[in-house]
Specification:
Elements (H helix, E strand, L loop, with lengths): L2 H18 L9 H14 L21 H11 L5 H26 L2 H12 L2 H6 L6 H20 L4 H15 L6 H13 L3 H22 L7 H5 L14 H24 L4 H25 L3 H15 L13 H17 L4 H40 L7 H16 L5 E4 L2 H8 L2 E4 L6 H10 L4 E4 L5 H12 L4 E9 L2 E8 L43 H4 L14
Parallel strand pairs: 1-2, 1-3
Antiparallel strand pairs: 3-5, 4-5
Helix pairs in contact: 1-4, 2-3, 2-18, 4-5, 4-7, 5-15, 5-16, 7-8, 8-9, 9-10, 9-14, 12-13, 13-15, 17-18
Length: 561
């Protein structure tokens, strides 16, 4: 069988495996909604701004390549959550197809097949293919860069392949900020090969858009990755910045997490106890293979591997996870396989076959079972979605949040702003701008932020426990500042929709002890549009912000809650 057909079959096989275990639900995290909102902002002509925020600031955190890809899909008519998610599946399948041809060209077909067979069922690879995130595109561009530079050397320095490699590296940088190591890798190879003219063009091609991006992000707040990098915990900025000792502690903690947990469990579904030993073994064997490769030839991947590893080990431990190790999984397997080949090379053919088969079986023994179980869960989720809507596979708390977003999008006046737990998702679902409610139990601070930003609504959600901890505490402390618009759910567990009353227009005695957080007054009619809608038609699979509004069967009960 020709290599061309093997690449095509691998692409189709990866696509099919990923789709069989495909979770059709949208992700409940804010990043997925954030990417869609940025793409919508581009398509609508608003620029690269955060439409979910009432101040619509220029976005400075995610580089623009992936939102541009989503925007292109929107321009050709894509509106469905499912199709946007399938784009990630396609990028994943494409990355493994390119990976196969790259490993085949620098090693052997057998090693390429072994590595890709393991990665097709890798939990980390399959997980990343399920969501609307930049990781699959970043993996594709990274592997494409490695492959193009390999082709460049094979074709006796064909400059068309060199152009492809440099372009892929540049796009990778503007897909994820963590793409900087691949830029360094390309720079190093061009220096080693003495390609001075190409190097000058490459530096110019990277520098000009980088300067434009830096000028765009200049003066941005602590949402930037660079500023967050130096914090002990980006999610708790009050802890301050790291010192020299804290930095080494961070690296040690991350090293332990990646080697003993994320690497082995991202490649296969071993239990936690066994995975620690396999993780250490994989890393040591891969390191030996990497050193072996350095003695033969230094390519982009040989420089990228230690630099990228150093990067993810040095950033805040709360960011660590197998999704950030995604570009390292193919390299770990390839370098480990290279070291294994050295052990069995020029020995009996049967020993080589046994070695390859044993290693692949060791990885696939658990990951295939996990994948098979995920196919059953995926089928059950698809049935639920067809009956009850796209978020029906999630908890009742999140489903209530979705229903509230839908209802508020239809019923509150234009230009309103709402305090919510998840502002980006809320905006994509409702088209209503939102901010995260303050994580404080101090009612004065909470209400001061609401008054300063003219926020008249707050959703006390059940997505997690924070709604009760913060919103509930403030309402109990200052019930006279709140009124009830309604709720979704079945008491005593429900998601409450509250109005925030203007302090200057309060009536009655604010110290009246008969008014409690359990018995709030109904909000005045001006909190809603004329003739508010009490129920809506069933929702579909389209992203609400792209079609106008989400539709869901829901009754919102008013009055006391």
């Amino acid at each position: 069988m020709s290599n061309k057909w093997m690449v095509i079959i691998l692409f189709l096989s990866t696509f099919a495996v990923a789709l069989c275990g495909f979770n059709p639900s949208p992700h409940s995290g804010g990043d997925n909604a954030g990417y869609l909102s940025l793409a919508h902002s581009i398509v609508s002509g608003s620029g690269y701004v955060e439409l979910w925020d009432p101040e619509t600031p220029v976005h400075t955190k995610y580089p623009p390549v992936y939102p541009l890809v989503l925007a292109l899909a929107m321009l050709v008519g894509v509106k469905s959550w499912l199709v946007f998610k399938v784009l990630s599946v396609a990028f994943t399948a494409l990355s493994l197809a390119i990976l196969f041809d790259w490993i085949r060209s620098r090693h052997t077909v057998k090693l390429a097949l072994c590595v890709c067979s393991i990665l097709v069922f890798s939990p980390a690879i399959l997980w990343s293919s399920n969501w609307i995130l930049s990781d699959p595109l970043f993996l594709t561009l990274t592997v494409c860069c490695f492959w193009a530079f390999e082709r460049w050397e094979e074709k006796r320095h064909s400059y068309s392949w060199l152009f492809v490699g440099c372009l892929a590296a540049t796009l990778a940088l503007f897909t994820r900020t963590a793409g900087l190591p691949i830029i360094v890798g390309v720079f190093g190879v061009l220096v080693l090969k003495r390609e001075w003219r190409v190097l000058a063009v490459f530096i110019t091609a990277v520098t000009l858009p980088s300067l434009a991006w830096l000028s765009l992000t200049q003066g941005a707040n602590t949402g930037q990755y660079v500023s967050e990098f130096f914090l002990i915990d980006p999610y708790r900025p009050e802890l301050g910045e790291i010192g020299a000792f804290d930095f080494f502690t961070r690296v040690k903690e991350n090293l332990s997490k990646y080697i003993l947990s994320y690497f082995p469990q991202g490649l296969s579904s071993w239990n936690e106890g066994i995975s620690r030993y396999f993780g250490l073994l994989i890393f040591l064997v891969a390191s030996a293979g990497w050193f072996k490769r350095l003695r033969c030839n230094v390519g982009v991947s040989e420089l990228f591997f230690p630099i990228y590893l150093g990067l993810i080990l040095s950033w805040p431990a709360v960011w660590s996870g197998d999704r950030f190790a995604l570009p390292l999984y193919p390299l770990l397997l390839m370098y480990a396989g290279d070291a294994l080949i050295g052990m069995v090379d020029r020995r009996s053919r049967w020993l080589e076959i046994v070695a390859y088969t044993s290693v692949v079986t060791l990885f696939l023994a658990t990951s295939v079972i996990t994948w098979y179980e995920s196919t059953g869960n995926a089928r059950a989720c698809k049935r639920a979605i067809s009956n009850a809507g796209v978020f029906s596979c999630y908890s009742s708390g999140l489903q209530e949040f979705v229903s509230v977003a839908d209802w508020l999008g239809e019923n509150i006046p234009e230009g309103s702003v709402v305090f919510t737990r998840k502002p980006r998702i809320f905006f994509v679902l409702s088209g209503v701008q939102s901010r995260t409610y303050p994580f404080t139990q101090d009612p004065e601070r909470f209400l001061e932020e609401a008054d300063q930003n003219e926020i008249r609504y707050v959703v006390q959600d059940r997505v997690d426990g924070l709604g009760e901890v913060y919103v509930g505490s403030v309402v109990r402390a200052r019930p006279e500042r709140f009124c009830s618009i309604g709720f979704v759910g079945n008491p005593p567990q429900y998601t409450a929709i509250l109005g925030i009353r203007d302090a200057d227009n309060l009536t009655g005695n604010p110290n009246d002890t008969t008014r409690t957080s359990e018995v709030l007054e109904a909000c005045a009619p001006n909190f809603l549009r004329d003739d508010p809608i009490q129920s809506t038609v069933p929702l579909n699979l389209d992203v609400p912000i792209l079609v106008g509004s989400l539709r869901n069967i829901v009754e919102v009960e008013g009055g006391n809650y």
